[in-house]
Amino acid sequence: MNGESVDVFIKGPSKRDVAGMKAAFGEVQGGDVLSVLYKTERFGNFLITGAAHATVLDDVMVGGLNAAAAKKKAKDAEGGEIMQRQPDKDVRAFPAVFEGDFAPEDIEVSELSHGDLVVASFSQEPYGDFVVTGVVTEAEKDRGYLMVGPWILQTAQGPATRLRSVQRVAANGTHVAPVPTRRGLVEVDGL
Question: Do 91 and 38 touch, CB atoms closer than 8 A?
């Protein structure tokens, strides 16, 4: 595997195509299988692939994350009426397309460490089965608390109950995907 192919599908475009994403999300129906690339400071870049879940407010979620807001009427280039959805601020690309080749290896979650690039499958109702591809992050004060995107891979009690499988695409230092800093503690009311 070369580093460039790993970078291609996890980095996303240099500029968000908001207009294109609005139109693409406007066509999404509940149950459609989506691949959405997110970019956050805390978890880095991660791709979630799974069935679209429509909330009671008609927002679209995939893998438990907001992807786009409820449909709204808009005008197309010819003045006709179309339906669009505003993408969430953390959505970098939709539809996100895998490019390049990679061959993930099976691994025990306990063998992972901060910065490893992984593909992990989860199952959680009402979102169903979905896959998260991204860089593993450790908690600053608890190196055994591992996550990929906002999903827990492992805690001190062992592998997360929602985790179905995990594969390592590349070890930390052998890929070019951006690696976020270790996750610090979140303060609640200044504590």
Answer: yes
How many angstroms separate the CA atoms of 180 and 116, rounded? 11
Distance CA 76, CA 153 (A): 43
Instruction: Give me the DSSP letters along the chain.
Output: --HHHHHHHHH--SS--HHHHHHHHHT--TT-EEEEEEEETTTEEEEEEEEEEE-TT--EEETTEEEE---EEEE-TTS-EEEE-PBPTTEEESS----S----EE--GGG--TT-EEEEEEEETTTEEEEEEEEEEEETTEEEEEEETTEEEEETTEE-TTEEEEEEEE-TTSS-S--PPPBPPPPSTT-
What is the tens place of the pLDDT at every residue in 107-140? 999 999 999 999 999 999 999 999 999 999 998 8
Examine the pLDDT at 62 and tell me if it is beyond 50: yes
Q: What is the pTM of this model?
A: 0.87
User: Does 2 have pLDDT greater than 60?
Assistant: no
